Amino acid sequence: MRQAEALADDFCRLNINFDAIYTSDLTRAKLTAKTVKDKQETTAGGATDVPFVELDLLREQSFGAGEGRPFGKKEKGLSLVAHYAKGKFPALHTRQQKFPGGESLDEMALRAEAVIDGVMRLELLKEGAEGKPRTVAVFSHGLFIGELVAAITRRDVEYQGNIDIRDLRGMRNTGWTRLEVSLKPESDHASQSSDIQTYFAVRLNGVNRHGHLSNLHRQKGGIGSSTHDPAQKDIRSFLGGKQKSAPAVSNVIPRPKPY
């Protein structure tokens, strides 16, 4: 809870007020989003009655039968089906692989595209109709956030960012990333139809910001003392090895567009 409160305080300090908030329906993301919303609505100058929308599309990647189980190496001569029958889950190495009943990275990327077309496109159209910028918050989870940011940048065919989106997989709890997104002029009319892909102009302006955590001691159980959401167990056991923090924007050598 303290991390969520520190994040809310940081947004107030930076004078960031949200016109709409979208959040995963899982407990951790929803708690953080609600804390930010409440802080904004009780702060002088902050917008009140901010739209607050829960979406299962914003959930973390599902590992199906592998949820909460440690991964290991694949045994030579043993099929994946045989591994699963023995309760063993070898690490996944491609974007197409998934555990029984789970979701692959490619399938999660399709879910990210659905968020873009069902949420972002409508918010950008609303921005155009109102004639003023809108600031929208999306509260989700580490792996899905990486896929969503990658999907957004793919909508900008001229994207020249110098950050590999895959580095987002090492994001801190309540760390946040800021994107400035606008409709490409030639997309204004086409974007009225959900059957035509909308193209964006994208600027990635800060990755894995977590300065608000600098004075907090780490607590067990995720955000504050919150327990795990029974709808989706802990996935840290699948992220073996030390996770890299996302590099600073000014210190990154330009890389090819991710994925």
From TrEMBL:
<feature type="region of interest" description="Disordered">
    <location>
        <begin position="213"/>
        <end position="259"/>
    </location>
</feature>
<protein>
    <recommendedName>
        <fullName>Phosphoglycerate mutase</fullName>
    </recommendedName>
</protein>
<dbReference type="GO" id="GO:0005829">
    <property type="term" value="C:cytosol"/>
</dbReference>
<dbReference type="Pfam" id="PF00300">
    <property type="entry name" value="His_Phos_1"/>
</dbReference>
<dbReference type="GO" id="GO:0004331">
    <property type="term" value="F:fructose-2,6-bisphosphate 2-phosphatase activity"/>
</dbReference>
<dbReference type="InterPro" id="IPR051695">
    <property type="entry name" value="Phosphoglycerate_Mutase"/>
</dbReference>
<dbReference type="GO" id="GO:0043456">
    <property type="term" value="P:regulation of pentose-phosphate shunt"/>
</dbReference>
<keyword id="KW-0378">Hydrolase</keyword>
<dbReference type="GO" id="GO:0045820">
    <property type="term" value="P:negative regulation of glycolytic process"/>
</dbReference>
<dbReference type="InterPro" id="IPR029033">
    <property type="entry name" value="His_PPase_superfam"/>
</dbReference>
<dbReference type="InterPro" id="IPR013078">
    <property type="entry name" value="His_Pase_superF_clade-1"/>
</dbReference>
